Automatic annotation (TrEMBL):
Gene Ontology MF, one: DNA-binding transcription factor activity
Keywords recorded for this protein, A-Z: DNA-binding, Transcription, Transcription regulation
Protein name, as recorded: Regulatory helix-turn-helix protein, lysR family
Positions of the HTH lysR-type domain: 1-58
Source lineage: Bacteria, Bacillati, Bacillota, Bacilli, Bacillales
Amino acid sequence: MTIDQLETFLAVVNNKGFRHASRKLFLTQPTVTTRIQMLERELNATLFIRSRRHFSLSNQGAVLLPYAQTILLLYHQAKEELRNA
């Protein structure tokens, strides 16, 4: 699990889809999809329920969400502290 994967996961959640997340992150949609697939494979979890007209967070994705938010918050706080040290 990488910071990039977690940031991508949160971007997909917050932007309600892969296409909007890719625009927000300045990445291609296939890159966003690959990051999410790699994260899902590592966690052995389905994070999103996808179809052509439907997109939502799965139960497993809902479990990951607060952890991802906390991990990224701590990561950015640590970077800031180190810059200021």
